[in-house]
């Protein structure tokens, strides 16, 4: 059973890029824990977004919050290393986007970042059985990747429950003092009106883009999300 404090990761894909430094400063002040980067290459997914220079620019701007980089790219390794040098905290990638999943995970960790795998809605979790010892994060997509503002796919809840069982079983095998804590993140269509169900299914890290940046009051939206997550936790006890 998940015992990690919840994390709200604000996805800058929905921010105003004309004043991104200000937007990131505002959303962190409003209570976001992480800043989430959706990195798309117009190859693995049908869109083109941001690169490591933007990560470096935000660090130079004074952003100290963890930067959570989701790579929707192929190949993975060179860009992962560039983001690590640019100041990323966590780097995740899709297992089908690289030839050597274990090697890519280890390379990210050797570069000083936390590492994780991302699974699209129709991608099975099979890779997890072989690399749990190298994971800090599992990210489940609850939309098909490529664009922001999509609706949550309900079947993601069952997949979250499956991933939570795998994480808890791995933690049990390692014992209370052994192994690292693996976060379970969800990305896509996360809103104030469904985040409680998502939390109840086992997620502890919630990526929200349009739900936050499209709201008139970032702090109020993040506060409402935290209240819903806490209510889901209370109901589950």
Overview of this protein structure:
The protein has 237 residues and is an alpha/beta fold. It has one domain (7-236): Aldolase class I (TIM Barrel). It is 39% helix and 18% strand. It has helices spanning 20-29, 52-61, 77-86, 101-110, 128-131, 156-174, 195-200, 210-213, 218-236; strands spanning 7-11, 34-40, 67-72, 90-93, 114-119, 137-141, 183-187, 205-208. The model has no long low-confidence stretch (mean pLDDT 93).
Helix content: 25-40%
Distance N to C terminus: 10 Å
Which class in CATH terms?
Alpha Beta
Given the structure, what is the number of helices? 9
Q: What is the gyration radius calculated from CA atoms? A: 17 Å
Task: Describe, in short, the structure shown.
The chain has helices spanning 20-29, 52-61, 77-86, 101-110, 128-131, 156-174, 195-200, 210-213, 218-236; strands at 7-11, 34-40, 67-72, 90-93, 114-119, 137-141, 183-187, 205-208. It has a single domain (7-236), classed as TIM Barrel, CATH 3.20.20. By secondary structure, the protein is an alpha/beta fold.
Strands, helices and their partners?
Elements: E1 7-11, H1 20-29, E2 34-40, H2 52-61, E3 67-72, H3 77-86, E4 90-93, H4 101-110, E5 114-119, H5 128-131, E6 137-141, H6 156-174, E7 183-187, H7 195-200, E8 205-208, H8 210-213, H9 218-236
Parallel strand pairs: 1-2, 1-8, 2-3, 3-4, 4-5, 5-6, 6-7, 7-8
Helix pairs in contact: 2-3
């Amino acid at each position: 059973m998940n015992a990690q404090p919840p994390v709200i990761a604000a996805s800058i894909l929905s921010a105003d890029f004309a004043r991104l430094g200000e937007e990131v400063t505002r959303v962190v002040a409003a209570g976001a824990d992480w800043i989430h980067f959706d990195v798309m290459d117009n190859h693995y997914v049908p869109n083109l977004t941001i690169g490591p220079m933007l990560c470096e620019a935000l660090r130079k701007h004074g952003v100290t919050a963890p930067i959570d980089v989701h790579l929707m790219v192929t190949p993975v390794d060179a860009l992962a290393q560039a983001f690590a040098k640019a100041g990323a905290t966590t780097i995740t990638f899709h297992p089908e986007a690289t030839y050597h999943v274990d090697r890519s995970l280890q390379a990210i960790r050797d570069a000083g970042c936390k590492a994780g795998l991302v699974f699209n809605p129709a991608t099975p979790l099979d890779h997890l059985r072989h690399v749990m010892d190298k994971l800090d994060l599992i990210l489940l997509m609850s939309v098909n990747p490529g664009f922001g503002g999509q609706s949550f796919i309900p079947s993601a809840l069952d997949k979250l429950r499956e991933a939570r069982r795998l994480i808890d079983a791995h933690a049990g095998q390692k014992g209370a003092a052994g192994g690292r804590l693996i976060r379970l993140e969800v990305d896509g269509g996360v809103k104030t009106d469904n985040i409680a169900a998502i939390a109840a299914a086992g997620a502890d890290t919630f990526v929200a883009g349009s739900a936050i940046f499209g709201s008139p009051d970032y702090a109020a939206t993040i506060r409402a999300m935290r209240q819903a997550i806490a209510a889901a936790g209370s109901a589950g006890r």
